[in-house]
Amino acid sequence: MSSGLESLPKSAHDRLRWQPQPRWVDPTLATLVHEPFSDPDWLFEPKLDGQRCLVFKQGQEVWLLSRNRKRLDETYPELLRAFAEQPCRSGVFDSEIVAFENGRSSFARLQGRMQLGSADQNRMHETPIHCYVFDLLHIDGYDVTDLALRDRKKLLKRTLRSRDPIRLVQHRNSDGVDYHRQACRAGWEGALAKDATRGYARGRSRTWLKFKCVHEQEFVIGGFTDPAGSRTGLGALLVGYYDDGHLVYGGKVGTGFTEETLHDLRDRLGARERARSPFSEDPGERGARWIAPEFVAEIAFTEWTEDGKLRHPRYLGLRRDKNPADVVAERPT
């Protein structure tokens, strides 16, 4: 065993499993809830506004996968080099890739990197990124997902060196209510609470909870309107979410675009036009153009209306790491 594993208490050793390193692990997804809380069995972390990334390392070989299993190697080549230089022989790490603007993580700023590929590597320095690692799933031949989160955090600290562009997420062990309040004052997207006594869950889980300072989530683009007046490209996006297999109309998004974004979206969406609406009910938008529901956008908004529509929505960017069929309305429980 590695020195990190040997440092674990005996109760944690019994939960270790010798297992070949996997090529994929379904990531834990946090559940949105209303009220922050404090609990000695939970720990609290910042909710970073970026792109989820699972990092796999085997010797000098490193590969990056988004939460919908898309390879991100060509988008973030500096991370391949940085993880290859880490001293651990092998490992699987859960992380968030972020870009900063005015000292805060910004999904809109990260858009400058998410759309780039290998042919654009000379432009990558324009949007520097950091990889914030917050969990360890496999290390040196051992599956550690059954370990309590506190034990995984200790192993992670022994396994990775925190040096740019790799950083370890700092957490707090108490006073989650105050932590959430500070997060909102600092302009973060929100805060996360994680059950420190539990193993790593797959898929949506209540062992990880999220408390948002602003409403923000992904929506499926089902259509758009033509521009009016002096506007070019397109007028607004028509977006929705899935409920029981049906694409439900969520509203019209007409702000948050730059001129470049408007033209880029018109080109992308125009290539996927179709005659019929993908929404389960007629949105009633005049002059609407329908597209195949294949694009996912990140949208900020102030609140849900009583009839299930978005109030004051604002476009933040496209998401390549989300499957349209997985997009549902995130309402606090």
TrEMBL record:
Record's keyword terms, sorted: Ligase
Class of the enzyme per the UniProt entry, highest EC level: ligase
InterPro entries: ATP-dep_DNA_ligase, DNA_ligase_ATP-dep_C, DNA_ligase_ATP-dep_cent, DNA_ligase_ATP-dep_CS, LigD_ligase_dom, NA-bd_OB-fold
SUPFAM superfamilies assigned to the protein according to its UniProt record, in alphabetical order: DNA ligase/mRNA capping enzyme, catalytic domain, Nucleic acid-binding proteins
Known catalytic reactions: ATP + (deoxyribonucleotide)n-3'-hydroxyl + 5'-phospho-(deoxyribonucleotide)m = (deoxyribonucleotide)n+m + AMP + diphosphate
Residues in the signal sequence: none
GO annotation, biological process: DNA recombination; DNA repair
EC number(s) recorded for this UniProt protein: 6.5.1.1
GO molecular function terms noted in the UniProt entry: ATP binding; DNA ligase (ATP) activity
Domain of life: Bacteria
Domain ATP-dependent DNA ligase family profile: 122-245
A Pfam family that the UniProt record links to this protein: DNA_ligase_A_M
Family: Belongs to the ATP-dependent DNA ligase family.
Listed name of the protein: DNA ligase (ATP)
Taxonomic lineage from the root: Bacteria, Bacillati, Actinomycetota, Actinomycetes, Pseudonocardiales
